[in-house]
Specification:
The complex is a heterodimer of chains A (about 170) and B (about 425). By secondary structure, chain A is of the alpha/beta class. Chain A has a single domain, classed as NADH:ubiquinone oxidoreductase Nqo5 subunit (Beta Polymerase, domain 2), CATH 3.30.460. In chain A, about 25% of the residues lie in helices and about 25% in strands. Chain A is built from 4 helices and 7 strands, in the order αββαββββαβα. Chain A has helices at about 1-15, 40-45, 110-120, 160-165; strands at about 20-25, 30-35, 55-65, 70-80, 85-90, 100, 125. Chain A has a 5-stranded mixed sheet, with helices on one face. In chain A, strands 6-7 form a two-stranded parallel sheet. In chain A, helix 1 (about 1-15) crosses helix 2. The N and C termini of chain A lie far apart (about 65 Å). In chain B, a hairpin with a 7-residue loop joins strand 7 and strand 8 (about 370-375). Chain B is built from 20 helices and 8 strands. In chain B, helix 14 runs parallel beside helix 19. Chain B folds into 2 domains: about 5-65, no CATH class; about 70-310 and about 340-375, Orthogonal Bundle (Cytochrome-c3 Hydrogenase, chain B), CATH 1.10.645.10. In chain B, the strands form 3 sheets. In chain B, strands 1-2-3 form a 3-stranded antiparallel sheet. A 3-stranded antiparallel sheet of chain B has the order 6-7-8. In chain B, strands 4-5 form a two-stranded antiparallel sheet. Chain B is globular, with a radius of gyration of 23 Å. The chains are: A alpha/beta (about 170), B mainly alpha (about 425). Chains A and B meet through strand 3, strand 4 and helix 3 of A and helix 4, strand 6, strand 7, strand 8 and helix 17 of B.
Chain lengths: ~170, ~425
Amino acid sequence: MDVLNRAVETLQNALKDKVLSVDVFRDQTTVDLDRAGILEACRILHDDAALRFNLLAALTAVDYWPKEPRFTVVYQLYSIPNRVFLGLRVPLESDAAEVDSIESVYPNANWHEREVFDLFGVDFKGHSDLRRILMPKDWEGHPLRKDYPLGYEEVQFSFNFDEIDDQKPYAKE
Amino acid sequence: MDTDNANQAMDTTLEELRHLVSDRALEGETMLLNMGPQHPSTHGVLRLLLELDGERVINCVPDIGFLHTGIEKNMESKTFHKALVMTDRMDYLNNLGNNLCYCLAVEKLVDLDVPERAQAIRVILVELQRIASHLVFLATHALDTGAMSVFLYCFREREIILDIFEMCSGERMMTSFIRPGGLWRDVPEGFEDAVRNFIRILPKRLKQYSNLLSKNPIYLSRSKGIGPISGEDAVSWGLTGPNLRAAGVPFDLRKANPYSGYERYDFDVPVGTNGDVFDRYMMRLQEMAQSLRIVEQALDHLPGGPVRSDNRKFVPPPRSEIGTSMEALIHHFKLWTEGFSAPEGAVYVAVESPRGELGCYLAGNGGPKPYRVHFRTPSFAAIQAIPVLVRGFLVADIVAIISSIDPVLGDSDR
């Protein structure tokens, strides 16, 4: 893949040691970046006349709890003229889970970053409207974190029906 | 409506939405109006907060999440096979397309090949699903713009497709028919006749729909020049699929990055010019005809052979083998209790759903369950672009614009 090699080279030349590693898995290229380099990397990939990664296809995160760095924010960029995907990854430590917002380059990152903020609790610096998006605004916790339990309801049998019923969170007045 | 009352009703949210509305709203000069989530023309449970100057929309703040069911979280607790059924429930108009996207991701992650016959049948089913989805678009879009009869006609044709799905999988909607490594089973006898019958029926019906709407002055005045977007803006707001092509960008993943054997079929990608409501309607109308072409070609050259991979480490053996082969029994037991393990690593696979790019980011950690599944859904991107599309138009146009981008809230909220 010509364009991908070029993209990786361009990033390595421009960002030097902010490019942590380059990983090819199942023919898909992913570049690991230091958090300080993500905004610049996006700008380069978006603006470069030969690369033109003009579509932010997806933005999500993975929680590797209890490992450190705990979070990985994942970006999937697509170049419509060159027809290739390029993945970017930014590892984040749990005590500093924040990264620059790329909204200024890709406007549609707005909602994707809100989703990651909502479900993982990753902070996006410079985001114009960082609110919860899928969960209610008074929700506690970030559901897609690995230390957030899935939650089950206990099965009620005749012998313990009242016992369990007392603890159920019914709506109160 | 009394503006003070409207502001008071919004009091809880106004403070946090201050940066999204103009200063005039705070002084009560413009009106804040809530639309949805229970509203017949928001296509599910979409809530919009509108800032209006008279009838004109100044700002629009979409609010989603009313249909959030934690599908991604739930999938992490199931094996790769069992997580499949959750994908049906995301975009409920594109069940087979969701299955396909997830299965392609799993197959890519564990490096599994799919037999040609399975690939061809997948294409037939997914294209039929695309037609069914576009028929629902056409039906609801026409209904929202005031044409009741198109609604009834479209649902009549959609029922034929759903009958075909029921014939294959036993289910009209939640099919789970496409499985990692192939299909659940081969298509039954009578499948080909049923599909050919549909191919014969639909073209003249499409012409009828077109006659009802494409030159209808009432429809034209409600759709021409309404909610336009330029190609460049559409890309930067992440619009894909028919919504992007209506704006003049010929981007179709089936052509650009073919999957499941799409490179073998000859079809055109319709492209619009203005990116308005009318163009988005035209895209879908023309795409249905192209989908029919693909289905016909796939049916003409349907290869023989098995419909699921014979790699027993990932794909359960056929029922008939279990009674005679000890090894088959072991594989069956292993796959349905423990499941298969995926290597450490992550893949991103994107397919062209009826609404645009549907992507699946799938990460494995060496265990039998997906470590992380994320779906990049086209409706999520489309709803995000609603404020750009409706700004400056009338309240009545919002209804036409929302239905023209064809959002499915189950798709966006997951």
